[in-house]
From TrEMBL:
UniProt organism field: Variovorax ginsengisoli
Domain ABC transporter span(s) in chain numbering: 399-646
CDD domains: ABC_Mj1267_LivG_branched (cd03219), TM_PBP1_LivM_like (cd06581)
Listed PROSITE patterns: ABC_TRANSPORTER_2
SMART domains the record matches: AAA
Keyword field contains Nucleotide-binding: yes
Domain of life where this protein originates: Bacteria
Protein name per Swiss-Prot or TrEMBL: Branched-chain amino acid transport system permease protein
Length: 650
């Protein structure tokens, strides 16, 4: 596997070098200002899309404010040049920082909401920016717009071609930086919060904070692009940064393919070239025929390799052939431009939800190269991968809850529950369905704030603290209904749990400082060790959603252990497992306890509970009805009565 990925890396590198060389040589080969400018615009849009993809593709949020942010970048540069004759090396960083600041301004309040509300808020934000630019004529010259020249570098005024080269360099730089961010712990945090927000928070990755980060970074790229756009067009006016552009950006990310830099480049090329293409019927005929042939070949390959059925491929094939036929049937495009544009958009959004890159990947069975093990990395030995819980002095009790009340409307899911967990033990929490066991875990991990009661963990109160804060203080958990980051590999899932081991900031990530390399390599080794610890060594590169159910539960445990917890909460870890799997699970839980980690175990399988637990607490209708050694509890009359109600306990 390692060898293959090395080979792939080299071929990717060669392709990338060839691509950059082609971009750099383009204006020498084709000395036509029109085409140079076209390509320049594509690259500038691509920079916006790299950033937008972080928000849309990775965190799964919607932004309709990116045209506004792009406009802010353009105006930051325009006003600086117009009012202060600022040089290029000033306008670029200022535009980036200024726009990133506005990104934070947008994100802080907006990200409290999500879905359609977030779309509305970002849309309003974009509109307000456009209106402000229009109204603040003392600064922006209002609707008149601002004219500016190409910038100078080192005292030399750049001509069209030279500025094009500057754009190439900055685009490649942006691409590398975005790529590095997304491959780092930051990118994993972004992806995780899309996969499962609740699990992210419980792994110490604050969903809210990383959503804001994503917006700020994304805005920074929009700012850079806006700044370059101002110089490229040499004229900016408020109308350029309208609603249409924002929708176009969004479509470009989706069409090109989310979570892909090539997708962003493709998307940018499409939104720049498609309108031009629809102006010229002869060119449109050529391109539609080429497109039809390409789709046909891709579909044929996909069907032969049994990656898709003929029925699935019928509509793309028929659609692209119909488009080509239409092109020959029409004499002029003028009347049809918008309709064709609309139909193509609809078709893509409806049919290519993973974008063009996703479609091609699926057809050719290419997997995302997600696992790149650094050649120097060796896995930490499984048992060393689990950190021994720190016994920082303190009392014999690691967790103490008293009088916990959790009320949902009229229902008391937890009613005056006391719980005292001794350090280093396995504490069972049992009770019939709906008795409040999971609610207790949610209260302990900050997902619910108890209506009343006190909880202290390692000497500090937990009540009112955020889930991520509680997680970082040493409580890890798994979920009754598995909460993995489905699109991420097993390795990446565990790496999210190791997020707390990174001190690297954006700069470290962007330039790959020694600190980042060290932390990153260490995290890979630890993650491999943890996967081996739960016996998932062979599934390292498998996407979590493709794992068998039992393995998914084990992966959750490995991820939770990555947090280096003092207390581990397991919510029905054996549910849905086969008998041999359960045996394996019991062995793993014992090993975890041997590392000094305290375990609270919710379980329906009585044999598991009885064989492992040091103490058992029994809940019924939200109240604790019994507590003590397993054998004693099992014989308790109240407990037997509670269970006769028809639970699956055996
Ligand atoms: P279990 O012991 O099976 O894990 P739970 O803790 O999941 O039980 O649920 C206890 C009770 O609290 C159930 O009646 C459940 O319907 C209710 N409950 C749990 N979460 C909520 C919620 N968010 N809103 C309303 N009721 C809830
Ligand atoms: Mg439950």
């Amino acid at each position: 596997m390692a060898l293959q990925s090395e080979k792939m890396k080299t071929s990717h590198l060669l392709l990338a070098i060839a691509g950059v060389a082609a971009l750099l040589l383009f204006p020498i080969g084709i000395d036509n200002p029109y085409y140079i400018h076209l390509l320049e615009t594509i690259m500038i849009y691509a920079i916006v899309l790299f950033g937008l993809d972080i928000v849309v593709g990775y965190t799964g949020q919607v932004s309709l404010g990116h045209a506004g942010l792009f406009g802010l970048g353009a105006y930051a540069a325009g006003v600086l040049v117009f009012k202060l004759a600022a040089p290029f090396w000033i306008t670029v960083p200022v535009a980036i920082l200024f726009t990133a600041g506005f990104g934070a301004l947008l994100a802080l309040p907006a990200l409290r909401v999500s879905g359609p509300y977030l779309a509305m808020v970002t849309l309003a934000f974009g509109t307000i920016i456009q209106i402000l630019i229009n109204e603040m004529s003392f600064l922006t010259e209002g609707p008149m717009g601002i004219k500016l020249d190409k910038p100078s570098l080192l005292g030399h005024k750049l001509d069209e071609r030279e500025f094009y080269w500057v754009v190439v360099v900055l685009m490649v730089l942006a691409l590398v930086v975005v790529h590095r961010i997304l491959r780092s712990h930051l990118g994993r945090a972004f992806e995780a919060l899309r996969g499962s927000p609740v699990a992210s928070d419980c792994m110490g990755v604050s969903v809210y904070r990383y959503k804001v980060y994503a917006f700020v970074i994304s805005a920074g790229f929009a700012g850079l692009a806006g700044c370059l756009y101002a110089y490229s067009e040499q004229y900016i006016s408020p109308n350029s940064y309208n609603f249409e552009l924002t929708v176009l950006f969004l479509l470009a990310v989706i069409m090109g393919g989310r979570k892909s830099r090539i997708g962003s480049l493709l998307g940018a090329a499409i939104i720049v070239l498609l309108p031009k293409l629809l102006d010229d019927v002869v060119l449109f005929r050529y391109v539609s025929v080429v497109l039809a042939v390409l789709v046909l070949v891709t579909a044929a390959v996909a069907i032969r390799r049994e990656r898709a059925t003929p029925a699935q491929m019928a509509i793309p094939v028929v659609g692209s052939i119909a488009l080509a036929a239409l092109a020959f049937w029409l004499d002029t495009m003028t009347d049809w431009r918008l309709s064709i544009f609309g139909v193509i958009m609809l078709f893509v959004v409806y049919y290519l939800q993973d974008g063009i890159v996703g479609f091609v990947r699926k057809a050719f069975n290419m997997r995302r190269p997600v696992v790149q093990l650094p050649p120097t990395v060796e896995g930490v030995a499984p048992t060393d991968a689990v950190a021994t819980a720190a016994h920082a002095g303190g009392s014999a009790e690691v967790l103490q809850a008293s009088g916990v009340l959790m009320q949902f409307g009229g229902l008391k899911a937890l009613n005056n529950v006391d719980l005292s967990i001794r350090r280093g033990t396995i504490h069972g929490l049992i009770g019939p369905n709906g008795s409040g066991k999971s609610t207790m875990m949610n209260v302990l991990t900050g997902i619910y704030v108890p209506t009343a009661g006190a909880i202290s963990f390692a000497g500090r109160s937990l009540v009112g603290r955020t889930s991520s804060d509680i997680a970082l203080s040493g409580i890890a958990r798994t979920f009754q209904n598995v909460q993995l980051f489905g699109e991420m590999t097993a390795l990446q899932n565990v790496q999210v749990g190791l997020h707390h081991t990174f001190a690297s900031n954006l700069f470290d990530v962007a330039v790959h400082t020694p600190r980042y390399r060290r932390e990153s390599d260490a995290a890979v080794s630890r993650a491999l060790g943890l996967l081996n610890f739960v016996g998932l060594g062979e599934f390292v590169a498998e996407e979590a959603r493709n794992l068998p159910y039992g393995k998914q539960r084990l992966l959750e445990i490995a991820r939770a252990l990555a947090l280096d917890p003092q207390l581990l909460l397991l919510d029905e870890p054996a549910a849905g497992l086969t008998a041999p799997d359960i045996k394996e699970l019991i062995a793993i839980i014992r090993k975890i306890r041997d590392h000094g980690i305290t375990v609270i175990l919710i379980e329906h399988h009585m044999d598991v509970v009885m064989s492992m637990c040091d103490t058992v607490s029994v809940l019924d209708f939200g109240q604790k009805i019994a507590e003590g050694e397993p054998a004693k509890v099992q014989a308790d009359e109240k407990v037997i009565e509670a269970y006769l109600g028809g639970s699956t306990a055996t």
